[in-house]
Design goal:
Layout (H helix, E strand, L loop, with lengths): L15 H10 L13 E4 L14 E4 L1 H8 L5 H13 L2 H4 L3 E3 L8 E3 L11 E5 L2 E7 L8 E7 L5 E6 L2 E4 L5 E5 L2 E7 L2 E8 L4 E11 L2 E6 L3 E5 L7 E21 L2 H13 L4 E4 L6 E4 L2 E4 L4 E18 L2 H10 L2 H10 L2
Parallel strand pairs: 4-13, 5-16
Antiparallel strand pairs: 1-2, 3-9, 5-6, 6-7, 7-8, 8-9, 10-11, 11-12, 12-13, 13-14, 14-15, 15-16, 16-20, 17-18, 18-19, 19-20
């Protein structure tokens, strides 16, 4: 008899839809300690079961699973904790969480082909609030990434806080496999996919995030920032830049009022500071250090930075088409799609 099949002929691998239901019932973490790094545990003896039943499978972290395997905890104890957890509300249960490795002091979040680190600490600022911020460690201290990620409806789905990730139990699904954390907001719709690349680095493999009237799409290879327009397709902006220097208040991606962005540009230009290029109506402004900005849509990239510009594309495109372009095409083809729709 194969070790992968029990005496009832049942394969050890749990079907995806059952695993998803187990994660939901386990509230996306270990049912005992709430670690977000887990394994699937058959509470009933696997040798005797004829089907994978979510009522008899739960999530356990490696440490808690080991205690069961060594006989320190009984299956009955695990079942009692699983039953208890399912009765608890969101706040009572506690968020699933997992430690992040920034022990070297480095703290980098890879955002497509926007090359901003290590010059810039604030990755995303929304009308004055820092939603994603890096804090490199000093004097032997670990680094840190603080972040709030939302889905395409603006609901918070995962946070990075004090060297830990915290999952939202309001999410449709949170799956952890190896170094990858995937958050789905519905079947087939990935809102966030992080790849942990320790020490000190996290890669945004996929982000489909709405913040107010703005939208951010990121893959491992490209990114685009959009503004939703009433009665029309969203307008998108995707400059490929390498940031070389930055002021203390610099921001990689800034969303703020049109007036504030224009005032910043005019302040620098009237003072004769930096270098700039702007369209006659100031719809598009390229200024070092004010930023690469489109004030009409409240978007500025590389705010407070000196940078090398490689490619830039802007245009109105449907959200579905943009998702396909960002997630499934090269960065060059994405910008071609934004510019000419092909």
């Amino acid at each position: 008899m194969s070790a992968r099949v029990n005496r009832q002929g049942l394969a050890r691998r749990i079907p995806p839809e059952v695993r998803r239901e187990v994660r939901r019932r386990s509230k996306f973490g270990c049912v005992i300690c709430r670690s977000g790094f887990y394994e699937y545990e058959h509470i009933a003896e696997f040798a005797d079961i004829s089907q994978h039943d979510p009522a008899h499978i739960c999530c356990l972290c490696e440490a808690c699973h080991g205690r069961v395997t060594r006989g320190q905890w009984s299956k009955e104890y695990v079942r009692s904790k699983y039953t208890e957890l399912q009765r608890l509300g969101v706040e009572e249960a506690g968020h699933p969480s997992g430690p992040l490795d920034f022990h070297t002091g480095d703290a980098v979040l890879a955002v497509g082909d926007l090359l901003y680190a290590p010059a810039v600490a604030t990755v995303l600022r929304y009308f004055g609030d820092d939603l994603i911020k890096l804090t490199p460690g000093k004097g032997g201290e670990p680094g840190m990434i603080s972040a709030v990620f939302t889905d395409d409806e603006g609901n918070a789905i995962l946070e990075l806080d004090e060297n830990e990730w915290l999952g939202s139990m309001e999410a449709w699904d949170i799956e952890v496999t190896g170094t990858r954390i995937t958050v789905r907001q519905r079947k087939g719709a990935i809102a966030l996919q992080l790849r942990l690349d320790p020490p000190g680095r996290i890669v945004l493999e996929r982000l489909d995030m709405r913040i107010g009237a703005h939208h951010i799409l990121v893959s491992e290879h490209s990114y685009a920032v959009g503004a939703h327009i009433e009665g029309g397709d969203p307008w998108w902006f995707s400059p490929q830049l390498t940031i070389t220097k930055a002021l203390d208040w610099a921001v990689a991606i800034e969303l703020d009022s049109s007036q504030k962005l224009r005032d910043r540009f005019r302040y620098f230009s009237m003072a004769g500071k930096g270098k700039w290029l702007a369209s006659p109506d100031e719809r598009f402004i390229f200024h070092s250090p004010a930023g690469v900005m489109v004030p009409e849509f409240e978007v500025s990239i590389a705010t407070g930075c000196s940078f090398r510009q490689h490619e830039v594309a802007a245009g109105a495109r449907p959200l579905g088409g943009m998702r396909d372009a960002v997630f499934h095409r090269s960065a060059k083809d994405l910008r071609k799609y934004i510019a000419i729709g092909e």
